[in-house]
TrEMBL record:
Cofactor: FAD
Top class in the EC scheme: oxidoreductase
Domain FAD-binding FR-type: 9-110
Organism superkingdom: Bacteria
GO biological process, one term: cellular response to oxidative stress
InterPro entries: Cbr1-like_FAD-bd_dom, FAD-bd_FR_type, FNR_bac, FNR_nucleotide-bd, FNR_type-1, Riboflavin_synthase-like_b-brl
Protein name: ferredoxin--NADP(+) reductase
UniProt entry keywords in alphabetical sequence: FAD, Flavoprotein, NADP, Oxidoreductase
PROSITE patterns tied to this protein: FAD_FR
Single GO MF descriptor: ferredoxin-NADP+ reductase activity
Keyword NADP appears in the UniProt entry: yes
Amino acid sequence: MNAPVSLKVNPDLQTVTQVTHWTDRLFSFRVTRPQSLRFRSGEFVMIGLAGDNGKPILRAYSIASPAWDEELEFYSIKVPDGPLTSRLQHIEVGQPIILRPKPVGTLVHDALKPGKRLWFLATGTGFAPFASLLREPETWEKYDSVVMMHTCREAGELEYGRQLVADLRDDPVIGELIGDKLQYYPTTTREQGPFMGRITDNLTSGKVFADLGLEGPLDPVRDRAMVCGSLAFNKDVAAVLEGFGLEEGSNSAPADYVIEKAFVGDGV
Ligand SMILES: Cc1cc2nc3c(=O)[nH]c(=O)nc-3n(C[C@H](O)[C@H](O)[C@H](O)COP(=O)(O)OP(=O)(O)OC[C@H]3O[C@@H](n4cnc5c(N)ncnc54)[C@H](O)[C@@H]3O)c2cc1C
Ligand SMILES: NC(=O)c1ccc[n+]([C@@H]2O[C@H](COP(=O)([O-])OP(=O)(O)OC[C@H]3O[C@@H](n4cnc5c(N)ncnc54)[C@H](OP(=O)(O)O)[C@@H]3O)[C@@H](O)[C@H]2O)c1
């Protein structure tokens, strides 16, 4: 049988099934999942929209949903004059988006050596791969405890993560796996809140250990980490982790921590 014309033209089209706006610069959305797409929780793919000239405008996006989910979820910035997100922020349920089904990335369990305590360290939309990994059963099967540190300038920017963590604890399947293993540590840096400060500072000063009642400092025998933020953040966190004796790993050479960029560039 012949394929419908639109699929012949672009076999990578998926349909938007849900859109949620969190702030004036952040939104999340869900799309249909190609039946053939297999990925590891924490990986990213290229997604996009057709530009005015018909050519696709594609960008890297972490898949925010876990590998077992029937749909795919994404968590996105809205860059006012960004080639993709100036358009993507207006998508509505039922509309098509382009998805290239070639998942890749280093924020995967395979790239870490076995450990006892896993740290997810994210700023801004760098939370996206952890939205996937927090809902991944392997995370909870492999580690005794997981600390999710997420830092944004303002409290509103933490809301997507806050709600996801709350829903996790209520989830009948994942909630049971998590038990009391999850420690969630959201902080702000430019708005007053219950917990404040940069992730780098809170790790080196020991504040996060004191606030959560955890054994510190970081120790390469016990601790593993996954990092996702701006280039500057990633660089500074890597220095902190190396300072505690942790070594960077990759898919081909698993070690103590792994890093992925949340975006390229340093100014909107
Ligand atoms: C491996 C990887 C994974 C990514 N995953 C995500 C994701 O899950 N969600 C997401 O929103 N973006 C993600 N990005 C960034 C994404 O690829 C695009 O840059 C973003 O969608 C903006 O596209 P644009 O065409 O509108 O603007 P671009 O021309 O791509 O970017 C314009 C400028 O906006 C700023 N910017 C871009 N993305 C962000 C961001 N996420 N947070 C803060 N500032 C930003 C940068 O200063 C950049 O120079 C990822 C990037 C990489 C490399
Ligand atoms: N967030 C907003 O409300 C907002 C609004 C308009 C435009 N923008 C622009 O959007 C771009 C991205 O902004 P963003 O807020 O998503 O990301 P960001 O600037 O990377 O900041 C996100 C969080 O990471 C922290 N951080 C930044 N660099 C760090 C480092 N080297 N080490 C440790 N922590 C670090 C920030 O703390 P500090 O606050 O201490 O830097 C902040 O809490 C920026 O160019 C910004 O000017 C942001």
